[in-house]
Specification:
- Helices cover about 45% and strands about 15% of the residues.
- It is built from 6 helices and 10 strands.
- Helix 1 runs antiparallel to helix 2, helix 3 packs antiparallel against helix 4 and helix 3 packs across helix 5.
């Protein structure tokens, strides 16, 4: 097996090719991507392959080509690494939680007790988190190159700019439609911020799937959503501190902090489910971004005449510190770990 990643994912086998080599000189006789990484038993001129996605495959043991006679999925919801065992036409398969015995003999099965078909094996259903990303890197277990980080950064920074432009548009339209009173701008300002955060978080969560379905280059936009949740929690908390007599402000801050914690927890769970060995490092950059967010918020309150321009500058700086802090941490962590 010539593998690109050493561990399978729940949504697919380990990527790579199953190869037949000439024993004397190492020459490749044929390559096939179909079976995935598997444990193999050779019997009666056939290959019985049990791959890490729980599929049992029967192929010809031939030096000419990979020829598959049949395949069936035994376990759909677990990664299977245990080698199978074959005895008297029965193959024994096991995962971390279950075991199964399948009859693969030539003669009709003579069983004293009722037997099941493959379709009757109880299976659980899991949400396929890969649809939230829409792709993966060629070598997902390696640290991204700086060029990859730069591509991700530019796309996510563009999400901040688009959200900021939408905020400005809502403000301009609102100020033109509403009377110019002391409370007039409040409503378009609130609506604009809802639009801003909605676009920013939506771009972070859905940007990867949208871009990877159209682009040949893998793009990862979830860091924008993680930073957005942090920034929202910081701004809500600082606003609640200034509104000491406003109980509603305190509850808003608590809600924003809870949303941030839940978002980070969900992201970590998705990283585990997808086997994302590097992407979890985007939970490390909040320490670098937090001081800039707090300082920027304080300056922004003193520059109300240019608050929307300053908001873009503060958010761009805070996000840049967060993103590149995560990138440096991933590079440092891999080097130290190695």
């Amino acid at each position: 097996f010539d593998l690109k990643d050493a561990q399978s994912r729940l949504n697919r086998p380990s990527r790579g090719e199953f190869r037949c080599l000439n024993w004397s000189d190492g020459r490749v006789l044929w390559s096939a991507p179909e079976p995935g990484h598997a444990n193999i038993i050779v019997a009666n001129g056939k290959l019985l392959l049990f791959n890490d996605r729980g599929e049992l495959r029967l192929a010809e043991a031939s030096a000419e080509r990979y020829t598959e006679f049949g395949a069936t999925t035994v376990f759909t919801d677990e990664i299977c690494w245990t080698p199978p065992a074959l005895s008297e036409g029965r193959v024994f398969l096991r995962t971390q939680t279950r075991a199964a015995c399948l009859y693969v003999g030539r003669k009709p099965l003579q069983a004293e007790q009722p037997v099941q078909t493959i379709a009757e094996i109880p299976q659980s259903t899991r949400f396929d988190a890969s649809i939230l990303i829409g792709g993966e890197r060629e070598f997902p277990a390696t640290t991204p190159e700086w060029s990859e980080y730069r591509l991700w950064y530019l796309w996510t920074l563009a999400g901040i700019v688009v959200a900021w432009v939408a905020l400005g548009g809502v403000r301009v339209v609102g100020w033109r439609l509403l009377p110019r009173t002391s409370t007039g701008p409040a409503r378009p300002d609130a609506i604009g911020r809802v639009v801003y955060w909605g676009i920013l978080l939506g771009a972070g969560v859905g940007g990867s799937a949208a871009l990877n379905s159209e682009s040949a280059d893998y793009v990862f936009t979830w860091p924008l959503a993680l930073w957005g949740l942090m920034q929202l929690a910081v701004e809500a908390s600082l606003w609640a501190i200034r509104q000491q007599h406003n109980r509603w402000a305190g509850w808003q801050a608590r809600g924003a902090i809870l949303l941030f914690v839940l978002g980070c927890g969900l992201y970590f769970h998705l990283c585990r489910q997808l086997g994302a060995a590097i992407e979890w490092s985007f939970l490390s950059g909040f320490i670098a971004a937090y001081p800039l967010s707090v300082i920027g918020d304080g300056i922004q309150r003193r520059l109300r005449a240019h608050d929307i321009l300053w908001m873009l500058a503060v958010h761009a700086a805070s996000y840049s510190a967060y993103f590149w802090g995560c990138a440096w941490f991933a590079k440092w962590w891999l080097r130290v770990g190695s």
